[in-house]
Amino acid sequence: MKYDTETRPHGVSSITGDVLTEAMPWIKKITGETIVIKYGGSAMEDPALRAEVMADIILLKIIGVNPVIVHGGGKAISAAMKRFDLPVEFVDGQRVTSPEAMDVVRMVLTGRVNQELVEAMNEHGNMAVGISGTDAGVIVAEQADPRLGRVGAITRINNLLIEDLVAADYIPVIATIAIGEDGGCYNVNADVAAGHIAAAIGAHKVFFLTDVDGLYEDYPNRDTLISAMSLEEARQMVEDGAISTGMIPKLRSCVYAMDAGVKKGHIINGTTPHALLLEILTDKGIGTMVTGDGDSEAAAPLGNFAAKLIENREA
Predict the structure, then answer these.
(1) Helix, strand or coil for residue 296?
(2) Whole-prediction pTM value?
(3) How many whole angstroms separate alpha carbon 277 and alpha carbon 291?
């Protein structure tokens, strides 16, 4: 036997119960919905952080959310290119991708990064399926700029494979390699891909995990961190160029997805412990949330248990 002084030497905090109670209405709102998570930055590079984020995504799946993961892998690509003695060059913040570099990008994103994420998630059960945008032509692109080589601008998303995997209760983990209109492959920006995919599959929300706490009006002044903004305010910031370079594709993708019907966009710090859970399941959340007009939230089709959770939910 074990005594209470051994197992609970400092007692039991009521805070845990308060947190679970606070989460309940948010669980009821999100269950049955599909969300797109763009995953990147330090949270992907650090194995411990990666394992934590993957476990949180599994928890979301268990409570009835349908996550779709979209990832790049910029740091890993740069490191691999240096090992192969290939130049690492950027133009206007975008990687110059020669045909030789494109081979490295495919190798890193689909052969290493994608499989690391799938393996970390499948530690908890065989739910994750790794694919790239070339599988079933999920992401189709054309050359964005001759100066950038094999860097693509997305022309369309073929959403059937993603929706089939979600319907079969799998979690798609998508590496952002696109099939080209010319038959080759293109490297596409993961932020942009997440926005396009969220729009194409009719996601409820889109999340961008980054290395900062959210969107700042005047970075890095902590007092200017924006907790919430409207779609129109986001659109205006993009048009005015009033944000840091790294945030431009994230906010622009929020606007693109929400113009297509996605209800909310979230920019959060993936290095914060349990950032996704805090943003989705607590009253205050963290990071920056972009909301559309009206913010009505219709329920998605649910399984039997999930349906019972919302039987008495207000319309």
Answers:
(1) coil
(2) 0.89
(3) 18
What values do phi and psi take at 28, rounded to 5? Answer: -65, -35
Neighbouring CB atoms inside 10 A of 153's CB total: 15
Sole residue written with tokens 């129109």: 232
For residue 236 the two structure tokens come to: 């205006």
In sign, the C-alpha dihedral spanning 89, 93, 95, 96 is negative
Q: CA-CA distance, 20 to 24, in Å (whole number)?
A: 7
Which run of H or of E encompasses 229? Answer: strand 228-230
pLDDT tens readout for residues 128-140: 999 999 999 999 9
Span 27-54, mean pLDDT?
89
Count CB-CB contacts under 10 A for residue 128: 26
Query: Distance (Å, rounded) from C-alpha 175 to C-alpha 163?
Result: 16
From residue 98, alpha-carbon distances to 81, 102, 104, 149 in Å are 11, 6, 10, 5
C-alpha span between 269 and 267 (Å, rounded): 7
Among residues 73, 60, 50, 26, the alpha carbon closest in space to that of 270 is found at 50
Beta-carbon neighbour count of residue 246 at 10 Å? Answer: 14
